[in-house]
Design brief:
Blueprint (H helix, E strand, L loop, with lengths): L2 H15 L10 H10 L5 H14 L4 H6 L2 H7 L6 H17 L2 H6 L3 H8 L7 H11 L9 H10 L8 H12 L3 H17 L23
């Protein structure tokens, strides 16, 4: 993966879309909750679910565990798959408390913390990396469907490249840079939602001149 090409993509997207200020959340734990709830749903639904959780009391691991599972599921209903996500959220909260809470997580190196996160039921690589990058400010790049689509069309990486290989490729090309990873991922998501869709709006794309797939999809 060409560092120059990747940085050019970042500059063009940044100039076009402006600062993203992502991930929204009042506390690191709220960001962690959002990372779990956003699986397979739009962020607007997650915001509604988090607002409902806050109505029940402080958004803290122990407080969420104190809620009956049925009530927890009902409050996060807007996020979809609410029964499954309620179980995942409870499993994560219990794991977080058993690990010593957020301060204890921050004391662990990323290479130890990431595998530990992946042991939590319902936490896959993308969710784990969301938590690491946005809540714990670790230099880990998040790969999602928008990233795969954009990188494939630009010729930066094959669409079927395994998650870990794509993540490592970006991290190697750009070096450990939390603000850059944060902003680049947010820009890719925004661009993927607004322009580089499954049926792309190539005429509106700032990357069109650099895209081998432009108008050929």
């Amino acid at each position: 993966m060409s560092p120059e090409h990747l940085r050019r993509v970042f500059r063009l997207l940044s100039d076009h879309h402006g600062p993203m200020h992502w991930w929204p959340g009042e506390t690191p734990f709220e960001v962690m909750v959002g990372a779990i709830l956003t699986q397979n749903t739009a962020w607007s639904n997650v915001e509604r679910a988090i607002a409902a959780l806050k109505e029940a009391g402080p958004l803290e691991p122990a407080a969420l565990l104190a809620l009956p599972e049925g009530e927890l599921a009902a409050r996060i209903r807007p996020s979809g798959y609410y029964n499954v996500k309620a179980r995942r959220l409870r499993a994560f909260c219990q794991w977080l408390l058993d690990a010593g809470g957020e301060p204890a997580l921050r004391a662990h190196p990323t290479e130890r913390l990431r595998p530990a996160l992946l042991t939590v039921k319902g936490i896959g690589p993308e969710t784990a990396d969301d938590i690491l990058l946005y809540a714990l400010e670790r230099p880990v790049f998040v790969v999602d469907a928008y990233t795969r689509r954009l990188f494939s069309r630009l010729g930066l990486a094959p669409a079927d490249l395994p998650y870990e290989a794509l993540r490592a490729g970006v991290e190697s090309a750009l070096g450990p840079d939390v603000p850059l990873f944060n902003e680049l991922h947010a820009l890719i998501v925004n661009h993927g939602k607004s322009v580089c869709r499954p049926r792309p709006r190539c005429g509106d794309c700032i990357l069109r001149r650099d895209c081998p797939a432009a108008d050929g999809i």
